[in-house]
Write a structure and sequence with these properties.
Layout lengths: L1 E6 L5 H5 L9 E8 L3 E4 L5 E3 L1 E6 L3 E6 L2 E3 L7 E3 L6 E3 L11 E9 L2 E4 L3 E5 L13 E4 L4 E3 L11 E5 L12 E3 L5 E3 L8 E10 L4 E4 L3 E6 L9 E7 L4 E7 L4 E4 L1 E5 L3 E6 L9 E4 L4 E4 L8 E9 L2 E19 L4 E3 L5 E3 L2 E5 L3 E6 L2 E2 L9 E4 L2 E4 L8 E9 L2 E11 L12 E6 L4 E4 L10 E3 L4 E4 L8 E9 L2 E12 L3 E4 L4 E4 L4 E4 L1 E3 L7 E6 L2 E2 L6 E3 L3 E4 L8 E8 L4 E11 L16 E6 L5 E7 L10 E8 L3 E12 L4 E5 L5 E9 L14 E2 L10 E9 L2 E7 L3 H4 L5 E8 L7 E5 L4 E5 L6 E10 L2 E2 L6 E4 L10 E9 L2 E7 L12 E11 L11 E6 L4 E4 L6 E10 L11 E4 L9 E9 L2 E7 ...
Parallel strand pairs: 1-43, 3-12, 13-20, 22-29, 30-38, 39-44, 46-54
Antiparallel strand pairs: 2-5, 4-9, 6-7, 6-10, 8-9, 10-11, 10-12, 14-17, 15-18, 16-17, 18-19, 18-20, 21-24, 23-27, 25-28, 26-27, 28-29, 29-32, 31-36, 33-34, 33-37, 35-36, 37-38, 40-42, 41-42, 43-44, 45-48, 47-52, 49-50, 49-53, 51-52, 53-54, 55-56, 56-59, 57-58, 57-60, 60-61, 62-63, 63-66, 64-65, ...
Helix pairs in contact: 3-6
């Protein structure tokens, strides 16, 4: 046949753009690619800011940064790609901060300017953890604990996790878990939590760096008097009873509840006045976190998290507020107009709060742009009328609120172009029968169901048949002219392999032959290709390819494999494969069973209103008989792409009668099953559509829920598309008040699953039905469902409330039930609130938090446990239903009697002297009545299990200490103390004490010698000590200082190094031994040490060899000079004794003695006299040698005093004494340093 195709380009944007028409006509710029709005960059890599656009002519690009022009050409680090607006910024050697900011790209040509989004460039940051010193945390067993992480703020925020020193994740469970802020929460602490390696790590994902917090040490104390007993839950995070959370629409909401309690509480979640969103919520972190994805407005409201253990429960309400960043309802679309035509640009956006919409033209606010008489703004839309050539422009719509913005570009192109057809003239399209045919043009006058018109003006024939072959004409026209084009369609027969190659088992050196006969369209000429294992055949003359076969001569082992025949035409192809197995021996090869081949040639016959017969041809069984056929169907109308099992038939059948549902677009396929398995599915049958009918079922799961005192909510499960049986599906909802002569009220609804009936009486029964109805009639008669309208709060408080005190911790309470008519709902029970007003013994610092007991149903009495003795309590009762609590009863005040007191506080034992101890304590924190006294017991204990005799003392109530005398010295005692009231004795506290030794040794007796070695900044102290080593300390203080002594413990050694001493300072040091009460019992004498005043490491010149040699040489030179001077002095001296010496004729100058280096002034062969330079014995006498001569020999008188010449005696004796003194002073050799000082 002849078909006419008309392409109207003007006013139809898609008809031109998708056909490629506008590729050669003017077009304003359009942004095609840009970087995200929030662009976090890696400071180690170059910054690449994308901006691509198209237009005719190709647009030029410019940028702004922080609202001002950014000249990329003036910065050598910035490159703009050719024919693009993309910026590449080389930040090597540069500070990234210099390029941070808000960037915007402008693409412009002569027809307008398009703008990109504002692109915020920020560098990723992974700051170091601030230095801190974390003190160990001490906590009682059973108490709650929070370990804070507080990581440094990074960009983007870091991912938090906790590990130990071995880089193993810390185990988490319902008791220990990580909060959303990264802190580690303990609902209660166990002894196993005692460790020193709680380490918080922060991983910064953008830079892939990990920062570590200092390890946290947790010390868990186990004390049976600690306040860590079992307790009802309270909330650690979030605190209090109520909190608020804000989330943006479309984001993910995370709500968190972490509870303290012992045993560990269980957490559950619910939504107040609603259900959690089906399919979008999940629980994490052991039920402590509720996560809701893709948040909608309906997700706003109150969420309740309930913490419960066996001691009670507590709840927290989180109010979720849903806000929304702007989102498009209708974004502005490009317009292509002819001169004198009109058009409209719409920009509809929504958000919460409502976004503000503004327009710009070519990047300039519309109110500041040039006035255009053909343009006006109405209701946020731009109305264009009677447009003129040259008025093309790009319009920008900006919708923004406090949570974000949207920027949409839409151009208005005013064109005056004659039509053009881009398809080549007389083009021939060839397709295979039953395949799809696409003809490129717009067919405005073809309205049959077999044809589909695409937006790009292509004509599609979904299933081409031979009758569709022929000539098609496309005519394009507008006010400037017409254009006509002809194309031809030829529908060919498909290519099919009729005789496929079969599985072959061939003996070695035999021959194998595979057939491959094909049926094809006579106008097509198929070629044949053979493959072995999906590869080309070997280049071997043994392989012979015929027109319809493959023959392999002289078969070898390496010929074994899979052989595939492919028959190709220019339009289609078909292929088939077979295996070749090569065997050695002649026995029959084993049978190889495989899953069957898929059935083929599906046909639909005997077509009726709600049934059809399906027939098929089985595939090859592959050596295993087919057991059954599985028939599946696809409903392309309601669930396209989903195949559903429909029925099964025996393996010997090749047909099946199928019962069908109304208003379904069926396609069928068949699978075969043998002992090996299911075959691949067959090709689908042609589509079979059934006619619509009225529904056969009604909605299920109908429920009637009272959500408020004056409304009823009716919910149901909607029908599936298969169950609808026809178009126009609606639900007829009917309701009436039960047991009242009232007509049914009905309402029809579509595409909903609930309806709210308002204006109902409180908690009143209603009968409800929901019936399915479509355009072809109603469904079956629906079932009646009973429900109630919403509850309201009870209006009456319980009366006749009475309290019966059973003992000091237990009381019984009773009350009269409230009338059911006042409950205004289902009576869930009663809540008894009671709290301690005060202690009858003392004024409590603050009132206690009320406790609450819940009694279910119609109970009117109960027990109050855990009361404090000797206290005054207040109590009231209220009824509650599903809506909430009613009014409370009048308060009832009752008192508990006295009980046994609590344990005495602060029990201490102190040494007094050798045989006495002082026991001190404080009164109990909880008296629980009037104290009548204390019972003190004590007995000696030793290192064995044997205990000494137990003694008891009754003490007055006002006593808080006692001195015990006549105890055994050096003995450990154990003390037991109870407080008492008239009700008896309270818990016992114990303490131990030791009497000191009966005889203390004198101070310092245990210590021997003490030595010290002083270096530049430390001193080494060593000592001898015969006492016990466990309490030895070294104490030191700056000399002449009033500072306290510094004490350092010695760990069982006899040597200790004192570090940190200041050079040039003197210190007093002592070693002491102390007893268990820290009193000094032994001490050494104080030792004074001085630290050398050396400010730096210097070489001691006095220890150098060259310096010692130099000093020796100088000393020897000085000695020689002294000898020479001395000799000359003796020879030339003028004093009276000289004459006497000359008269004797035997004096001679004594040589220097080699043994001590001294001089002798006078000498006689038998007489040695102590002269100058000689060493005089300490007793003042001169030791004689063998001679008895003396100075008498030199005189004339026998007494040897030279009385005739007094001057000699005076001068000689005086000089002898002087020389003796000088000899003594110089008797020790001088050090090199002293020698140098003397020389100088």
């Amino acid at each position: 046949g002849l078909f006419m195709c008309v392409c109207m380009c003007v006013g139809n944007r898609d008809a031109c753009l998708h056909a490629g028409f506008c590729a050669s006509v003017p077009q304003p710029p359009t942004i095609t690619h840009q970087s995200p709005k929030d662009y976090i960059i890696d400071p180690r890599e170059n910054i690449i800011i994308h901006c691509e656009a198209k237009g005719k002519p190709h647009p030029s690009f410019s940028w702004t940064r922080n609202g001002t022009h950014f000249d990329a050409e003036k910065d050598s680090k910035v490159i703009m790609k050719p024919n693009s607006g993309t910026l590449v910024i080389d930040i090597s050697g540069e500070k990234v901060e210099a390029y941070e900011g808000v960037y915007q790209c402008i693409a412009r040509n002569e027809h307008g300017s398009a703008l990109s989004n504002n692109i915020v460039i920020r560098q990723s940051r992974s700051p170091l953890w601030s230095k801190e010193r974390i003190e160990p945390i001490t906590v009682q067993r059973g108490m709650s604990l929070v370990l804070q992480c507080r990581p440094p703020a990074g960009l983007p925020p870091p991912i938090i996790f906790w590990m130990d020193n071995n880089f193993q994740r810390l185990p988490q469970n319902s008791r220990v878990s990580q909060a959303l802020n990264g802190d580690l929460y303990f609902s209660n602490v166990l002894m196993d939590d005692n460790r020193n390696d709680y380490i918080c790590y922060a991983r910064f994902p953008h830079t892939q760096t990990i920062q570590q917090k200092q390890p946290i040490t947790v010390n868990v104390l186990d004390s049976k008097y600690s306040p860590s007993g079992e307790r009802a839950p309270t909330f650690m995070q979030p605190p209090g009873m109520h909190s608020t959370s804000m989330v943006l629409k479309g984001d993910t909401l995370q709500l968190e509840c972490i509870a303290d309690g012992l045993p560990t509480p269980d957490i559950s979640w619910s939504k107040v006045n609603g259900d959690l969103p089906s399919g979008r919520f999940s629980f994490h972190s052991f039920q402590k976190t509720l996560k809701i994805t893709e948040v909608t407005d309906a997700d706003g409201g109150d969420y309740r998290c309930l913490a419960r253990n066996r001691l009670g429960s507590n709840h927290h309400i989180i109010t979720v507020v849903v806000r929304a960043a702007p989102f498009w309802i209708s974004a502005p679309q490009n317009l292509i107009l002819a001169p004198k035509e009109s058009g409209m640009l719409t920009c509809r956006a929504d958000g919460n709060p409502k976004p503000t919409v503004t327009w710009s033209v070519n990047g300039i606010p519309i109110e500041n742009s040039h006035k255009d008489p053909s343009r006006k703004i109405e209701n946020g839309n731009i109305i264009l009328s009677d447009v003129q050539t040259g008025s093309s422009a790009v319009y920008q719509c900006n919708a923004s609120n406090e949570y974000g913005y949207l920027l949409g570009n839409a151009f208005v192109s005013v064109l005056a172009e004659p039509p053009r057809v881009l398809t080549p003239p007389n083009h021939v399209y060839s397709v295979i029968t039953n395949s799809r045919a696409l003809l490129d043009c717009f067919a405005s006058n073809i309205h049959q169901n077999l044809y589909i018109i695409h937006k790009n003006n292509t004509l599609e024939i979904n299933v081409a048949r031979p009758v569709h072959s022929g000539k098609y004409t496309c005519i394009a026209s507008n006010s400037l002219g017409n254009k006509e084009n002809h194309v031809y369609l030829e529908v060919k027969e498909p290519t099919r392999i009729l005789r496929q190659p079969e599985y072959k088992v061939v003996q070695r050196n035999g021959m194998a032959e595979f057939e491959c006969k094909v049926k094809h369209d006579p106008t097509l000429f198929p070629s044949m290709i053979w493959l072995k294992d999906n590869m080309e055949l070997p280049d071997d003359s043994r392989f012979e390819v015929g027109s319809d076969s493959l023959t392999i001569h002289d078969v070898r082992e390496d010929d074994e494999g899979n052989y595939t025949c492919i028959r190709n035409t220019t339009l289609d192809q078909d292929s088939a494969s077979a295996m070749l197995t090569v065997v050695e021996a002649t026995p029959t090869p084993p049978i190889i069973m495989e899953q069957p081949d898929p059935p083929r040639d599906l046909e639909l016959t005997d077509q009726r209103e709600h049934s059809v017969r399906l027939t098929w041809t089985p595939g090859d069984e592959n050596n295993s008989p087919i057991q059954l056929f599985l028939i599946q169907y696809e409903d392309s109308l309601h669930e396209p792409g989903v195949w559903v099992n429909m029925t099964e038939v025996s393996g010997t059948s090749t047909t099946a009668h199928l019962e069908l549902s109304p208003y379904v677009y069926y396609s069928f396929r068949v699978l075969a099953l043998n002992e090996v398995g299911l075959s691949e599915p067959s090709a689908p049958s042609r589509q079979y559509r059934t006619n619509p009918a009225q529904p056969e079922v009604n909605p299920s799961d109908v429920e009637v829920i009272g959500t408020s005192p004056d409304s009823v909510t009716i919910t149901w499960r909607e029908l599936t598309g298969l169950e609808s049986n026809g178009p126009g599906l609606q639900y007829k909802v009917s309701w009436r008040q039960k047991d009242v002569d009232q007509q049914w009220t009905s309402l029809s609804l579509a595409n909903v699953s609930q309806y709210v009936v308002t204006g109902t009486p409180t908690f009143t029964p209603y009968e409800v039905t929901v019936q399915a109805v479509n355009e072809y009639g109603p469904g079956p008669s629906p079932e009646v469902v009973l429900g109630y309208s919403g509850e309201d709060l009870p209006t009456v408080a319980p009366e006749n409330v009475k309290v019966y005190v059973q003992n000091w911790t237990l009381a019984e309470v009773s009350w009269d039930a409230v009338p059911l008519s006042t409950v205004q709902g289902r009576l869930n029970g009663y809540k008894v609130s009671y709290w301690k007003l005060r202690s009858l013994h003392k004024q409590d610092p603050e009132p206690k938090k009320p406790q609450e007991l819940i009694f279910q149903g119609n109970e009117t009495e109960g027990l109050l446990f855990g009361l404090h003795p000797y206290s005054q309590y207040n109590l009231n009762i209220r009824a509650f239903n599903g809506k909430g609590d009613g009014p409370t009863s009048s308060n009832q005040i009752f008192e508990t009697p006295e009980g046994v007191p609590g344990p005495p506080a602060d029990l201490k034992v102190e040494n007094l002297n050798l045989d006495s101890l002082i026991v001190k304590w404080a009164p109990p924190v909880e008296h629980n009545g009037h104290l009548t006294g204390y019972l003190l017991k004590y007995q000696p204990i030793n290192t064995t299990d044997k205990l000494g005799p137990l003694k008891e003392l009754l003490l007055a109530a006002n006593e808080t200490s006692i001195t015990l005398d006549n105890l055994k010295h050096s003995t450990r005692y154990k003390f037991y103390l109870n407080a008492k009231t008239v009700k008896g004795a309270g818990p016992t506290v114990t303490e131990e004490g030791v009497t000191i030794m009966d005889e203390a040794p004198p101070v310092g007796r245990m210590f021997g010698s003490v030595n010290s070695s002083v270096e530049e900044d430390h001193a080494v102290i060593s000592w001898e000590y015969s006492g016990p080593d466990r309490n030895v300390y070294v104490e030191y203080v700056v000399d002449n200082s009033k500072e306290p002594w510094k004490t350092e413990f010695v760990n069982g050694t006899r040597t200790y190094q004192i570090r940190g001493l200041k050079p040039g300072m003197s210190y007093r040091v002592r070693v002491v031994a102390k007893d268990h009460s820290d009193a000094t019992v032994h001490s050494t004498e104080e030792l004074l040490i001085t630290v050398p005043a050396m400010t730096s490491k210097q070489v001691d010149i006095a220890t150098q060899g060259w310096f010692i040699g130099l000093m020796c040489a100088i000393a020897l030179l000085i000695l020689v000079l002294l000898i020479v001077c001395f000799i000359k002095r003796n020879k030339g001296g003028k004093y009276p004794v000289k004459e006497k010496e000359d008269a004797h004729q035997d004096p001679e100058i004594q040589p220097m003695k080699e043994d001590d280096g001294t001089f002798g002034e006078y000498s006689d062969t038998e007489d040695h006299k102590p002269l100058k330079g000689s060493r005089t014995p300490s007793n003042g006498t001169v030791k004689k040698d063998d001679s008895d001569d003396s100075l008498v020999d030199y005189g004339e008188g026998g007494d040897g005093q030279f009385n005739e010449d007094g001057s000699f005696i005076g001068q000689y004796s005086g000089k002898k004494e002087k020389d003796t003194a000088e000899g003594n002073e110089s008797s020790e050799a001088p050090s090199p340093v002293n020698a140098m000082n003397s020389f100088v």
